[in-house]
Design goal:
The chain has helices spanning 76-105, 108-128, 130-136; strands at residues 2-4, 9-20, 23-31, 48-55, 69-75, 140-141. The protein has 142 residues and is α+β, with helices and mostly antiparallel strands. Strands 1, 2, 3, 4, 5 and 6 form a six-stranded antiparallel β-sheet that branches. Strand 2 and strand 3 (23-31) form a beta hairpin. Helix 1 runs antiparallel to helix 2. The longest helix has 30 residues, at 76-105. The two termini are 14 Å apart. 6% of the residues are buried.
């Protein structure tokens, strides 16, 4: 992954895995920040994973073939929105409920359990809104 500062976008190189209608599935190799380190082979922190990214609403798939190398990108705003939904809001819900329940009940165990259970409705709402979120958090092919 690299950030192109001129265009304010985040890009990944990948290989087309499949093409179904206007949806192109691109296989990318996601690496941690330390995966390129010289001692990464001896360290448990360095990891890399293969991910499949759906690029929706590709207007012209006739020029694309399975196995082609492409670059997928998303704007920095899309990445920030994804981080907010995936980490920011759940953190605020967790901490907010934790302190609220501690303030009301003075029971830390109940507060911890309540804070964790408060994430269930949040993730349920995310799941129900996944189609709208997928449209907003979309990737594009260069």
């Amino acid at each position: 992954m690299y950030l192109c500062k001129v265009h304010n976008k985040i890009s990944h190189s990948g290989i087309i895995d499949s093409i179904i209608d206007n949806c192109v599935k691109v296989r990318i190799l996601q690496t941690s920040a330390c995966a390129a380190c010289k001692v990464a082979g001896h360290c448990n922190a360095a990891e890399s994973k293969e991910k499949i990214i759906d690029v929706l609403d590709v207007s012209d798939t006739s020029a694309l073939r399975v196995g082609d190398e492409v670059t997928v990108w998303a704007s920095r705003d899309v990445a920030n929105h994804a981080l907010l939904l995936g980490f920011g809001v759940p953190f605020l819900v967790l901490v907010g409920v934790l302190f609220l329940v501690i303030y009301i009940t003075h029971n830390e165990g109940l507060a911890a359990l309540s804070a964790l259970l408060a994430l269930v409705p949040y993730y349920a709402v995310l799941f129900l809104c996944r189609d709208r979120i997928r449209e907003r958090l979309s990737f594009h092919i260069e």
